[in-house]
Specification:
This protein is mainly α. It folds into four domains: 127 residues, Arc Repressor Mutant, subunit A (Orthogonal Bundle), CATH 1.10.10; 47 residues; 47 residues, no CATH class; 76 residues, no CATH class. A three-stranded antiparallel β-sheet has the order 1-4-5. It has a two-stranded antiparallel sheet with strand order 2-3.
Length: 338
Amino acid sequence: MDEELQAYLEPEGLRRRRTKYICYSDEVARAFLRRIISGEAVISICRDAEMPSEMTLRRWRKQMPEFARRMDLAKQASGRLFKEGGQTIFCEATAAMIFDRLLDGEGLKSICRDPAMPSLHAVYRWLREREDFREAYRLARTVQGDALAEEGWTLARAGTPETAFLTHVQLTHLRWYAGKLEPRRWGTVKAVEAEPERPAGPAAEPGHGDGPDGVKLYEVRYIYDLATGETRPTGEEPKLLQYGVAGDMRKTEYALEQERRSADARKAYGEAGVASLEAGVAVNGVPQARFYPAWYAELYPDEMRQKEMKEAADAQARARREAESAAFWAAKGVDPQW
């Protein structure tokens, strides 16, 4: 642990070991209440070796309601009564006690219910204003998360078939709570550092991404031979589609043009399909080239020429299959229309 943090957590005189346990007596109780009425803080009184400690005081209040009532009246008489706690000014001794009780697994809300402790509002203000207290609080929460993880392992080992569902519910809550206390270790979502923004301009040109981490995507065209079932490259120069690095890929003008052509082709196909259905002419549900809109033929005359050539080849193949079928059935002496 850092020496400065250790010194903060263990101020002089705070960790001294008590030599004797203070038993309850009317004399001690009266002396304790007189010091409260005089305006002395409860935590300051409890540091006195002749007075009960904070833990002893809590036990007295819990076991003796009459003493708790008198203590509340004494605080009212002192004018130091706070709704959720008795201290608002930062005190290193109080901060160290909060740290200790957090390490013991006690929740902050439970600690602040103690009349000798500051209110939740005061603690959160300390967290906001004091870096040393904030660091100590973060460390205590980390230790709490680790303790909950160990407690989960203990629960899992102690589980039985009869208590399996209860153990599952407890482990689920412990996992969630530990993730909230220490999200970097036990949380389900891990924090990642944001990558710096990459400069625009020359760094975004195709030369960007040429380093060891650079990525370039190319389009390579092939021809599928129906006769042999083999695929061979067309011999055309590969076209660069994207370039850059992971998370910062840029598209080339060629890739953008291909996307525009694809979008135009989908739009024209839809219009041709509607026109084919209205005319009642559609071969296998595919619209014919003559139904494609004029704007598509003007923009992409080569594609339209290829469609027309394909339709003509398909028509010839279809006519040939029909002729072969008719000849087959004629040789059999069977009317194919039957």
